[in-house]
Amino acid sequence: MASQVPRKILDHMSLLGDVHVTPENLGMMTVRSTEGIPEGERLDYWRHSVLYRMEPIAEEGGKPFAGRLVYIAGENCAFVHNVSEAIHTRRDRARLRRDDCDEILVGLVERGAPSRLSHEGSQTLRQDDLCIADFSRPIEYMQARNREITLMFRRSSLTDALKGDVSTLAGRLLPRGGISAILRSHLRLIAIEAANMSARERAAMIAAASEMTLLALQREFRTGADEEQFPTGLYAAAMTVIRHYCWNPELNPEIVASRVGCSRATLYRIFAAESESVARVIWNARLDRAHALLMASSESGAFISDIAFRSGFIDMPTFNRMFKRRFDRTPTEARLGTR
User: Fold this and answer.
1) Is it true that domain 227-339 has CATH number 1.10.10.60?
2) What is the pLDDT of residues 118-160, one digit of tens each?
3) Which has the closest alpha carbon to 216: 246, 185, 251?
């Protein structure tokens, strides 16, 4: 008897291109998993419920296939987090003609062994690579067991951002440093925290990721990037830098601007639009870090002066004064839970 395989299609491209994004579905999270499906039916299920645009050729690595995918609807792009066993997939010219799909994906190899990609040339993808895939071109992917995070864009979004032909992007890699490094960190944060966020929070995080990606593409593939075209992305990138490096007492607005790749004047304007001061956000990040360390049971034996130093403060009077002003109690009171 033929096995009954679920046929409900999670067509990412259809969701992205044909469904009008409304406040009701923006940030909505959908999960697909092979858990509970018999081993012999999993690849067929994955073909019909997840891959759809790609044809699985074979399982790789000798293990029964297993996978889990999280899809989140965004306003300008969709977010996909895929964890799966090794698999060999292909998108050939016959499939291109059949579905006429031309969306562009920017994917992060979050973790896993090297995978082989044939897409306007052949290359090996490794952990932390950010690769561009163009679904209007043939693709063959010998994917190792790994975790990938993908942003899926309408072609028109990239055409507008780059002000021209995007057909040369297929198979290209974004650089390891600059705004691309911040984008990697941001994508990982979404993947880790998505289940704990509200739909509105997920939508905001994806919107920021979208703008960071478009800015990274502009800087890499277009002459004369417009650094103020994507204020949400720049603001989120700057906040990521501040959170990661607030422990450094030398961190200042000039360093933050340099890290995200914009002028200091642009950074000031972007923060002013959020009714924020860059310097104040840096100091508040240091204070929040210190407060979290004071509350952590693993830091119960640490000197308060040591926590202050590890949070970016170089003198105790300044730390005590600013801490009291922000939290309405002294560091000692915060640790003891008094007041």
Assistant:
1) yes
2) 999 999 999 999 999 999 999 999 988 889 999 999 898 889 8
3) 185
Domain boundaries defined on the chain: 12-189, 227-339
Instruction: Return the CATH class of domain 12-189.
Output: mainly beta
Average pLDDT over residues 166-191: 93
Residue 33 phi/psi, 5° resolution?
-145, 150
Overall residue count recorded for the chain in this entry = 339
Residue-wise pLDDT tens digits, 219-262: 888 766 677 788 999 999 999 999 999 999 999 999 999 999 88
The number of C-alpha atoms within 13 Å of 66 and in the hemisphere containing its C-beta is 7
